[in-house]
Design brief:
Blueprint lengths: L5 H14 L16 E2 L22 H4 L2 H4 L8 E5 L2 E4 L2 E4 H13 L8 E6 L7 E4 L14 E6 L1 H5 L5 H10 L9 H15 L23 H23 L6 H10 L3 H7 L2 H16 L1
Antiparallel strand pairs: 1-2, 2-7, 3-4, 5-6, 5-7
Length: about 290
């Protein structure tokens, strides 16, 4: 029996929460529960509103994309949205503006719209158009003058992928939802914060940033950076001290040279003419 999957029920609930302004009264301005459908009625056969028990031979919702054929289950993979009119954020928002906005996101290949296979809608209440990711069709029947049809690739429904982000963005753009960070983004930020300042089991060895100081050993990235900078500071100071030292010992050099100069070596090094001049000078000084 064809069933409504949880991820499309979540989209339905989100839209009704914010577009059915007066849930206790049926009003033409509101999006009423009867106007948001997922599973086709008992006579419905073929198409994305049907699961595997109701598809037909060569059903376009199965055979035209491997994403559909691989994702076929008992789950329906479509959502119909009826008329509404809501004033918010200084503007009036209707099924027409909603449909056009969603099509624009698909045309732009927005990340949160890539599971949508097609949107059948009316931009003006007079003509029916179809945006088809596969480029197979451009229109639909006249019932889409007063409701917009969304088809989702069946593999995304089978995988249980969250389909609310696109619709949350729409509600946020019209001022009905605050720009709230997703739970996944919050978890990612928390993980980064933990790694930076606290550390954890997968962060490697612990270091003591201030030696025997007040800070406990940690394997957080900040602790390791502090530890590294401290060691670099010590190394720089040592190199500076070494660069200011004079490693030349002149007295030791002179002593070493003189120790190696025996009279024989000195005599052998003096040319004969110079040796005679030295001998004559020494004789003169001795007799003076």
């Amino acid at each position: 029996m064809t069933r409504a999957p949880e991820n499309l029920l979540a989209v339905r609930g989100l839209l009704l929460t914010h577009l059915n302004v007066d849930p206790n009264t049926v009003r033409s301005q509101d999006l009423e529960p009867a106007e948001v459908g997922i599973v086709g009625d008992s006579n419905h056969r073929g198409g994305y509103h049907c699961g595997s028990d109701r598809v037909v031979a060569n059903d376009y919702s199965v055979v035209e994309s491997p994403r559909d054929s691989a994702g076929l289950t008992l789950d329906a993979a479509a959502l119909d949205v009826g008329t509404f009119e809501v004033r918010s954020g200084g503007g009036t928002h209707t099924l027409r503006t909603f449909s056009i906005w969603c099509v624009q996101q698909c045309v732009a290949n927005a990340a949160d719209a890539r599971d949508i296979r097609e949107i059948i809608y009316s931009p003006d209440g007079r003509t029916v158009r179809r945006w088809d990711r596969l480029g197979r069709r451009t229109s639909g029947d006249s019932s889409h003058l007063w409701h917009t049809h969304f088809s989702f690739f069946r593999d995304s429904i089978k995988a249980g992928r969250d389909q609310t982000p696109l619709f949350r963005r729409y509600l946020t753009s019209m001022g009905l939802l605050e720009d709230v960070m997703s739970e996944k983004a919050e978890q990612q930020i928390d993980s980064v914060f933990t790694g930076m300042f606290i550390g954890g089991n997968s962060m490697g060895r612990r270091v003591d940033p201030d030696g025997s100081g007040s800070r406990p050993a940690s394997n957080s990235l900040v602790a390791k950076l502090d530890y590294t900078m401290q060691r670099l500071d010590v190394l720089v100071n040592q190199l500076t001290a070494l660069s200011n030292r004079d490693f030349t010992d002149e007295q030791a050099i002179v002593t070493g040279v003189l120790a190696s100069l025996t009279p024989e070596k000195i005599a052998a090094a003096i040319p004969p003419t110079l040796a005679q001049q030295v001998a004559d000078e020494l004789a003169r000084r001795l007799t003076a």
